[in-house]
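DEPOSITED CHAIN:
***
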Amino acid sequence: MDSLIIYLIFGAIVTVVLIIIAIIVILNSIDSEKKSNDNNNNNYLPPINTPEQYQNNQQMQTGQNYVPPQNTVSTFNNNQQGQYNYNSPQNYIPPVNNYYNTTYNNNQYFPYQAVNLLTNKEYNFFRALKIIAQRNDLNVLMKIRLADLVKVKDSVPKSDFYKYFNKISSKHIDFAIIDETKVVILIELDDSTHNRISRIERDNFVNEIVIRCGYKIIRTYGDIQQIEYEISQYIKSKS
């Protein structure tokens, strides 16, 4: 009888020891897995936010309603091992448009609205320019910022930079005829408002700065004959 009791006690002790060992093994396994995940998180390099990806990246990090984006140019390049051919984009899958959620609500003051890029007169003139340009394998740009055509010289002291930059930053040229990236002619479509003294001073300044920077500029009330002539002269100079 005593031997049976001793045997049962010994068996119970062994069982308890095995259970404790199993618990320790399980806890160690969980701890190792947690450390491994922490290391992976430390090595994770988040993608660079672009305006289109910002919302998805935020959702990805929080795990809320994350929807992976469709193929973009960069992911398509990766899928094609960097062999994306811009001359044959037929297989390209454009990204789904992602728009910002506005932080304004209907009760907040927001004094802006969309406008037409061109007036009716400017649009009709643009169509005439486009015909001439395409006939000569050229292109037409519109509303070109003057500060994208000229810049303040590097030799100007930094203290005077904005003094000169502000004179060009808010001005634009109506149209430009271009050959690839080369500007052929700058065009200003004038109307009666350009007879005002303030406009005359502005126009004279623009004329002076673009001509001294090496551009040709034509001012017209809608006549395209001089423009056609200048384009023909340019085409002849190329041949």
